[in-house]
Amino acid sequence: MNGFLLMLALAFGSGLASSVKIVKEKEEYLIERLGSYNKKLEPGLNFTIPMFDKIVYKDTIREKVLDIPAQSCITRDNVTITVDAVVYWRVMEMYKAYYKVENLRDAMVNLVLTQIRSEMGKLELDQTFTARTEINEILLRELDIATDPWGVKVTRVELRDIMPSKAVQDSMELQMAAERKKRAAILTSEGERDSAVNSAQGRAQSRLLDAEASKKAAILEAEAEKQAILLRAEAEREQQVMKASGTAQAMEIVTDKLKNEAQAREALQFILAQQYLDMGKEIGSSESSKVMFMDPSNMVSTMEGMRSIITNNKTDNGEYVPTELNLEKINRNYQ
């Protein structure tokens, strides 16, 4: 009897112990009672009925990583590429994750593979490399909508590697090499063109500067010559004015002498004769050859003619009127 009670106590204690369930933080358990869903165990201390309640599913509600294996895809331009990805997700509703789909992880892997093949088939090869961010956003949106009935929230999708086949890679390398050569040739030609243009512009500017300098030099030279001509003309004019002024003063002196002294007339005649002889001497000493005819017997008549110029200026009152003495005119009259 004591043994039976002991066994009964042990069984009761074992059942009581098995009814206590401790759930960790960020984890949830699904409980079925007699084959049907009963409740969800939250983190902390929970109690179940032994032999009636059964834990059928338990999982974490933290974010998880789903590694998508590499798969072959065909782009819109019929190029075969290999793509793999990584998906970040977490369970939002444990009940749906267990009862709405069988083997949630496999279902998500197949769904992601299908979506990747679908999106890659819409793009050409070059677009798959340049539009990776757009592809990630499209996959995230589509997968989030598709997994919502399973109680799953897809938080991020990232394409990791997009690898073309070996033949395509070789073709791409050749294409890139040709493109680089093309760009190098274009840059070289543009550099030569710019150099030629700069050289031509430099020569044009040099010629323009030379022409401008020549123009300025010609203008300055012309202005200098003009100033020189003006200065020479001014000097000649002043010289003539001074000469005329000197002649006028000399005439005034001679006139005064003729008025006041009677013998001044003979002195004037002598001076005129002397100047006439000096003029002939100067003409004879010039470099050009000249022939001057002068009759010595007419010297007296010449002097008389000069005297008549002086005496004819005498007025009725016996006074002399000033006369302009122009030696050149006298010379022409008596040659």
UniProtKB/TrEMBL annotation:
The lineage of its organism: Bacteria, Bacillati, Cyanobacteriota, Cyanophyceae, Pleurocapsales. Its main location: membrane. It comes from Hyella patelloides LEGE 07179. It is a single-pass membrane protein. The keyword Transmembrane helix applies. One of its GO terms (cellular component) is plasma membrane. SUPFAM superfamilies: Band 7/SPFH domain. InterPro entries: Band7/mec-2_domain (IPR050710), Band_7 (IPR001107), Band_7/SPFH_dom_sf (IPR036013), Band_7/stomatin-like_CS (IPR018080), Stomatin_HflK_fam (IPR001972). The keyword Ubl conjugation does not apply. Keywords: Membrane, Transmembrane, Transmembrane helix. CDD domains: SPFH_paraslipin. This is Band 7 domain-containing protein.
